[in-house]
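Section handout, structural biology tutorial.
Before the tutorial, make sure you can parse a SMILES string by hand: atoms, branches in parentheses, ring closures as digits. In the record below the ligand is pyridoxal-5'-phosphate, and the chain has 465 residues. In the tutorial you will relate the predicted structure tokens back to the input. Do not try to memorize them.
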Amino acid sequence: MNEKLELPPAQMRELGYRVVDRIVDHLAGLNGKAVGAKGDPAALRPRLSEPPPRGGVPAEEIFSRLERDVLPYIMNICHPRFFAFVPGPSNFASVMADALASGFNVFNGSWLGGSGPAALELAVIDWFREWCGFPEQAGGLFVSGGSMANLTALAAARHARLNDRTAGAVLYYSDQTHSSIDRALRVIGFLPEQIRRLPAGGGFRLPLEALARAVAEDRRAGLRPFCVIANAGTTNTGAIDPLAETAAFCRAEDLWMHVDGAYGAAAMISGRGKKLLAGIELADSLSFDPHKWLFQPVECGCVLLREADLLKAAYRIMPEYLADVHRNVAELNPCDYGIQLTRGFRALKVWMSMQFFGLESFAAAVERGFALAERAEAKLRAMPCWEVITPAQMGIVTFARRGADHRFYARLHEAMLRDGYALATSTVLNGKTVLRLCTINPRTSDEDIERTLDWLDALAGLVSP
Ligand SMILES: *Cc1c(COP(=O)(O)O)cnc(C)c1O
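Predicted structure of the complex:
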């Protein structure tokens, strides 16, 4: 029994060092290991489903249990040859920042709860604001990820533009838009008939003419066009919607412009990203996902609003038990700007990793993501059995096996998982299944790209009909 749930300092250190050693071994050895493994539910779940022990279990046993039944069964999204979905090439400085934030158990919901952390969060948000070219009065907050960022922004837009009355209001976006937008709209009460999911135009971009037609038609029908959602890098192909033109259209039509930059907005720290994403600074709201292309461990998302006060207008509620928190207006309370009251100190990892490595290193790490995808594209163009479907764009290239149908990709996926050397996943473009590499891990070597494509080619030969 240990009713104080307390460990003596020596034992705390021992446990801590053990955890750090385990993490460092994992990260240092990653390159030589399989990308990951997927457990079979029928085998894995029974091994772990049991009641909690009545008394404590020795650390040795706990760790060997984790080593056996839990930790082997993950996809290492930090692995240099993980090219599936969107990789999460985290960094160790941020990992330690998460440990600190947890160790101090920072309550980052109010100025009173953590004024140092609140001030630091504001400072980091201000970096993001500057990178994205937003004006002084812009602001935002850290959230769990892009999905929450989209939800937080769209609910604020609904409040600002519709006073929360959604009847007849209509939203517009391309069919390349991330599913988290559909989910956010479902959560905040928009019905399918209020959503115009426009078939993407050339380059898988938002089709402006079709957008203008749809808005005009809806106005004629007595509906209330309300918001356009544009992508700063789609998850499928890295396509960037015409941001500046969309913004001009939104201004002219008095529509809210939300930009989903969960995949690509972090590229604003690089020279290339800044050029490609010109116009992002015109958005009314922006989602940004540091746990993707800003190399942070999950969870770390961010939402920015052109007018930070609109977040506050949408979210601030003052209950009597928080009166002590709200007396001084200079003391900013993060809980007034979003959904969470109790919230962790996510800004710390961004801040600490930026201090450790410096912005230049981060910018170079982003640039490398662009270059790696280009390298993959060049190699694919020289491989007779493959066809490039969309060129390298924002660190993503898509390609297809000549003559293969969708069943080929399912078999290839299984073969990749069995082998474990690398992982790519498929997506569907214009009704056709294609493979996709997302190359935003700065630790991926040129050789990793070359070898992965040769390996894929060999596997494809084996699984072909
Ligand atoms: C990943 C992604 C999201 C969702 O972000 P999460 O952090 O996974 O919640 C939204 N939009 C785009 C474009 C994304 O790539």
